[in-house]
Specification:
2 copies of one chain form a homodimer. The first copy, chain A, is α/β, with parallel strands linked by helices. Helices cover about 45% and strands about 15% of the residues of chain A. A 6-stranded parallel β-sheet of chain A has the order 5-4-3-6-7-8, sandwiched between helices. In chain A, strands 1-2 form a two-stranded antiparallel sheet. Chain A binds a DNA duplex (22 and 22 nucleotides) through helix 1 and helix 3.
Chain lengths: ~210, ~210
DNA sequence: GATTGTGAAGAACTTCACAGCC
DNA sequence: GGCTGTGAAGTTCTTCACAATC
């Protein structure tokens, strides 16, 4: 299969989410323009993205929701269930911990970690909680592939290093710190302050 | 001033965050390579990004932290304080509400909104809380420019529409729904499930 | 030696435009 | 009329390479 451009992968993941919703509400088919309106892209971009999937061609008709979803899932291997863990059980960490939807989406939060025994004992959740000292052992024994970092910024890099040496494959960094990882580890960042700053800058620059 | 490419704007916002930390810890100067290592970019990219600022040239020497920070701030108008509001006071909404750091970064959470009077009365915060029905009036009267959407996905588009008609300039969408806004409104999305999916897809695709 | 600054080259991505299909 | 699929064209962004500076 041809290489899929990285931005296209991102969009296909959004399209996949859209298709799940459409399927749940019983919609059978959708056009490239309609998809585009939903994920903020042009119809041409959507068609191009979908073309990378190499779907058997039924030109001229709207995409079948179910079939398209299947092809995206196959190309991006989204059906493969992945185990994730959360490190740092502060406000954001526990908010994500409580997010029930992941299960339906093929992700399982297989563990939570915090420095504080207190928190580990106090938080009520079906997810197994551990001390950070158990991080590497638990990740290996439970086959966890993705780490969600929710620790304070000053501990973020150290946490990332531990995750990497435990063999983690991907990291979602929700701390305000910028972290570095080897190239083979997939990294995405969610930093509210940076996002607000980007929005602010774009508001200013739009006025030119 | 020349147009700054959009990805460069994003990176400059990250660089700005880095410079704040460096300044706080007393670091005086830094090289493009070192900046790059921190924000995951190459040294050439960092220099190019900085070149868009049109800083008076002091070629051959590391960037002065303070000066560079000032120029980014000026070019992107980051020193302009912006008021934001949070709509939806569930777990994520209250977590952001409690995030004290925004103040130092030039953002003020000037209001919080929820459907439930109960929540509005129960939550302890210095931020003024209102019912959603007051959304438009409060946004206008308090000069709020950015809306942070934390409502359940099925209410997200409706919330966005209200924000837009109240004259909002930017939206940070933290709900799982994809929303549409007019082109002149800046929109960024934080959806944990989509992020996890993107990471998962990239893990699969990396193995080729 | 180290660094920055930047035009030029290259790579990556998006859009166009139109053939083919329903 | 609508739509998809896709090579070609266009645009945007990144990297290179090297002069200039410290």
């Amino acid at each position: 299969m041809a290489k899929i451009p990285l931005p296209a992968v991102d969009r296909l993941c959004s399209i996949y989410g859209l298709l799940e919703k459409l399927e749940a509400q019983g919609t059978k088919a959708i056009s490239s323009g309609e998809i585009g309106r939903n994920i903020n892209a042009t119809n041409a971009t959507v068609r191009k993205d979908i073309s990378y999937l190499g779907m058997p061609s039924v030109s001229g008709r709207d995409y079948e929701v179910k079939k398209l979803k299947g092809h995206i899932s196959k190309a991006l291997q989204l059906s493969k269930p992945r185990r994730a863990c959360i490190i740092g059980l502060g406000r954001i960490g526990t908010a994500i911990l409580a997010y029930e939807k992941f299960k339906n989406e093929g992700f399982e939060i297989a563990a939570g970690f915090d420095l504080s025994i207190n928190k580990i004992e106090r938080i009520v959740t079906p997810v197994s909680l551990f001390q950070i000292s158990d991080l590497e052992a638990v990740i290996r024994s439970r086959g966890i592939e993705i780490g969600i970092i929710c620790v304070p910024p000053e501990a973020a890099q150290n946490t990332a290093d531990k995750l990497v040496s435990a063999g983690i494959k991907g990291i979602l960094n929700c701390s305000a710190a910028v972290i570095s990882v080897p190239e083979k580890v997939i990294l995405r960042n969610i930093d509210y302050t940076t996002y607000l700053r980007v929005i602010s800058a774009n508001i200013s620059l739009l006025k030119r």
